[in-house]
Write a structure and sequence with these properties.
Layout lengths: L2 H14 L4 H20 L5 E6 L4 E11 L10 E3 H5 L12 E6 L6 H29 L4 E9 L5 E5 L2 E5 L15 E12 L2 E7 L3 H11 L1 H4 L3 E9 L3 E8 L6 H6 L4 H9 L4 E6 L4 H8 L7 E5 L4 E6 L4 H5 L4 H10 L2 E6 H7 L14 H9 L5 H6 L2 H5 L6 H32 L1
Parallel strand pairs: 2-3, 7-9, 11-12, 14-15
Antiparallel strand pairs: 1-2, 2-4, 5-6, 5-8, 6-7, 8-9, 10-11, 13-14
Helix pairs in contact: 1-4, 2-4, 5-8, 9-11
Length: 432
């Protein structure tokens, strides 16, 4: 066996795998130790020296000199006559220890070949461990790589510094198409160990990817002057981001948008044209929810803080914008604010209101009109608003002009009730 060539070959392999020369020496030493144990059964009286710089392997065996007739262990003993035949040992005596040089060739060609395979495998294992540990520390970082494979199941593989990264279909932006040779950015989401080595999962659909893009493009976020409170995202369609700053001189939304929108445009282009709403944080729930519902503008919002529930009321023509295509806008608003939110039309809300306002108690409605309506089962404002218009017009004594007048009076009574409730809430807040 040409020791020097063998060691040089493994050092070259290790260098390609970014493994230190000293580590190679340890690997070779461990493999030689296993060969000794296999041949001799014990390694306690053996010393192994691997000189990676010189390309040399030295194996020494310490043997106790015994009388020729007392030999009973060839691994730890040597007869006096054999000891005297060793170089510079003519004067050796029984009881002394001599050191014998072991040539690696004694292990046989088959064992040496097996050792080579073990060495190669161990170097590969160390490389995998290093890759795993390196990328595990980098979870949350953005990486850039070239697509080298796109499989039929949708999984895309990217090269990053000769390391293969995996982007499953569910970590991709659905509106994007990936082709071999494309350069893409993604965030390291997870690192797992598989039978084939470390599996590094990257993502472009994760909310963390969007957060990192803002940190890259907006210095105020990177420096901590502006903070991203929450992010809600439906990849490829829409995102909502709540931002805040403690520096009164800084407009957090303006900082994210940039001059002429240059910062937000860069981010939007990176995520395939995804619409991004940037929301200025408020500790007032109603204001925060109202801002988050953009581009829709609610007429008013009723909030139950204990249940973390909000009912947002919109003009009838605004309801489609408020909900968004497929419920995207209302869904993202709920997620980014932490409130369960229902959006309803003003007309629908009016029908739900007024069940505690009795028609007979409204001064502007005559007793005769109130009795006429009661005879038809209409006792409250809610009953009137929920009643079919044709049914109301068919009631004797209620023509079109009377109906319009009653409707105006009832709407006015409802609005007065709302104002009273708002004043009560304000008084309660001031007392608190």
């Amino acid at each position: 066996m040409d020791q020097k060539k063998l060691i040089e070959a493994f050092i070259l392999l290790a260098k390609e795998k970014n493994i230190a020369r000293a580590e190679v020496g340890n690997i070779i030493e461990n493999v030689i130790e296993s060969l000794i144990r296999k041949k001799f059964g014990d390694v306690d009286n053996f010393d192994i020296i691997v000189n990676t710089k010189m390309g040399e392997i030295e194996i020494y065996q310490e043997l106790e000199v015994v009388a020729d007739d007392d030999m009973d262990d060839e691994v730890s003993q040597i007869s006096l006559s054999d000891a005297k035949e060793m170089p510079d040992s003519e004067d050796v005596e029984v009881g002394e220890v001599v050191v014998k040089i072991i040539e690696p060739t004694i292990f046989g060609r088959r064992s040496i070949s097996a050792a080579k395979q073990i060495l190669s495998q161990r170097i590969i294992e160390i490389e995998r461990e290093q890759i795993f540990n390196d990328y595990k520390k980098r979870i949350g970082e953005i990486v850039v790589g070239n697509i080298h494979q796109a499989r039929r199941n949708g999984t895309v593989f990217i090269n990053n510094d000769k390391i293969e990264l995996k982007m499953p279909r569910n970590e991709q932006i659905p509106t994007e198409r990936y082709h071999r040779g494309y350069t893409i950015k993604a965030v390291i989401k997870d690192v797992q160990i598989s039978s084939k080595g470390p599996e590094i999962i990257i993502s472009r659909s994760d909310e963390l990817f969007l957060r990192r893009l803002f940190e890259l493009e907006v210095p105020e976020i990177y420096d901590g002057i502006v903070e991203i409170k929450t992010i809600a995202r439906i990849p490829g369609r829409r995102s909502k981001i709540v931002v805040i700053t403690n520096d009164k001189r800084i407009d957090p939304v303006g900082a994210c948008v940039g001059i002429k929108g240059n910062r937000i445009k860069t981010i939007v282009n990176e995520v395939g044209g995804e619409n991004i709403d940037i929301i200025n944080y408020s500790n007032e729930s109603e204001l925060l929810i109202s801002r988050a519902l953009s581009p829709a503008k609610p007429s008013f919002i009723e909030i139950d803080e204990e249940r973390k529930y909000a009912l947002a009321v919109f003009e009838d023509e605004e309801i489609a914008t408020a909900i968004g295509s497929g419920g995207v806008n209302i869904n993202l608003t709920s997620r980014v604010t932490g409130y369960e939110i229902d959006a309803i039309r003003q007309s629908e809300y009016n029908r739900l209101e007024g069940d505690d306002i009795f028609i007979e108690d409204i001064d502007e409605i005559t007793d005769a009109q109130a009795k006429t309506l009661q005879n038809e089962g209409i006792e409250t404002v809610a009953d009137f608003l929920n009643a079919d218009t044709e049914k109301l017009l068919s009631i004797k004594g209620i023509g079109e002009k009377t109906f319009e007048k009653l409707e105006f009076i009832i709407q006015d009574a409802l609005e007065s009730k709302r104002e009273e409730e708002k004043e009560k809430e304000l008084d309660l807040d001031q007392n608190v």
